[in-house]
Amino acid sequence: MPYKLNKHIISVDSAKLHTISVGSPLDDTTIVPSLFQSHLLTAKNSKSEIHYTNYDYLVSGILLFLYILFVWMYVSNYKKLGQIIKGFYFSRYANQLSRDELAIGNRVSVFLSVFFVFTLTLFIGRILSYYGYHPSFLGKSSLPVVSLVTALFIILAYCIKFATIKLFGFIFNLQKEASDYMLTIFLFCNALGLFMLPVVIGITFVKQVSPQVFIYSGMGIIALFLFVRIIRGLIRGLYSSEISKIYLFLYLCALEILPFIILVKLFILYVK
User: Fold this and answer.
1) Would you say 199 and 221 are in contact if contact means Cβ atoms under 8 Å apart?
2) How many H helices and E strands in the chain?
3) From the CB of residue 102, how many other CB atoms can be counted at a distance below 10 Å?
4) CA distances from 95 to 90, 126, 170, 180, 181 (A)
5) Which of 15, 193, 256, 270 could form a disulfide with 116 if both were Cys (CB 3.0 to 4.6 A apart)?
6) pLDDT at 16
7) 3-class SS at 69?
8) Comparing 217 with 88, which gets the higher pLDDT?
9) Residue 98 has pLDDT above 70, yes or no
10) Element (H or E) spanning 105, and its range?
């Protein structure tokens, strides 16, 4: 029977169509040996089991809690939240907060401090986990224990810093200047916690980008905030006639710049 296809005549003998032998699928599979036979694997369970992935539910739960906390603060205390964030960058907002006597016991301030401690703890924990470093003094402690120790260390460090500033202000009769600088540090912590949240989320969930990108981005944000805080404190000290420039220089070197250099040095030696 002739068929016309693409301007060519193709003739097919219909008598030979019945002579084509097609092997059955069963015959073809018997040629190749089965993959499930003649192996050294031993079956543990003949029934199907649910596979659980290695997922960090603790970190996800903390991030969900921080997100809910931020949404609540944004909805219920939008004005105060904006003043606190702007107060770190602009002096007039910081002066306004100082006149309003922003207290550490303020509701927004307390929640932002919790925000700062959690985000910085998660960031440090992600760094230690990525580089495979486990503090030797903690032994074989689990991740929650390491995170708890990190959070306590951050709280203790800032408590010591505030106590030292308060003590210096009392000794040199500079309570007003000491309170203003404590407010600058407090605003630094509150603003830094919010800016570090996207970095922590990126390290935890974004797998298409190398974690080093978020690690160095977070360290850059911390360094930038620390630089702004030091400049703000330096400006306050230079414009105040009651603060000795020598004491101001010694304080900035001893309690601001030196700890940051030590942390970077420890990171290079033991973590990286």
Assistant:
1) yes
2) 10, 2
3) 21
4) 9, 36, 21, 9, 11
5) 193
6) 47
7) helix
8) 217
9) no
10) none
C-alpha 89/C-alpha 232 separation (Å) is 9
Cβ-count burial of 123 within 10 angstroms (0-12 exposed, 13-18 middle, 19+ buried)? buried
pLDDT mean over 220-226: 90
* pLDDT at residue 46 greater than cutoff 70: no
Give the closest residue to 73 by CA, choosing from 185, 193, 228.
193
Mean pLDDT of 108-123: 89
Q: Could you tell me if 229 and 144 are in contact, meaning their C-beta atoms sit under 8 angstroms apart?
A: no
Please, is 122 exposed, middle or buried when counting C-beta atoms within 10 Å of its C-beta (0-12, 13-18, 19+)? buried
CA 181 to chain centre: 27
Residue pair 216/210 in contact by the 8 Å Cβ criterion = no
Residue 18 has pLDDT above 50, yes or no: no
Distance, CA of 198 to CA of 209 (rounded, Å): 14
Is the pTM of the predicted complex or chain greater than 0.90?
no
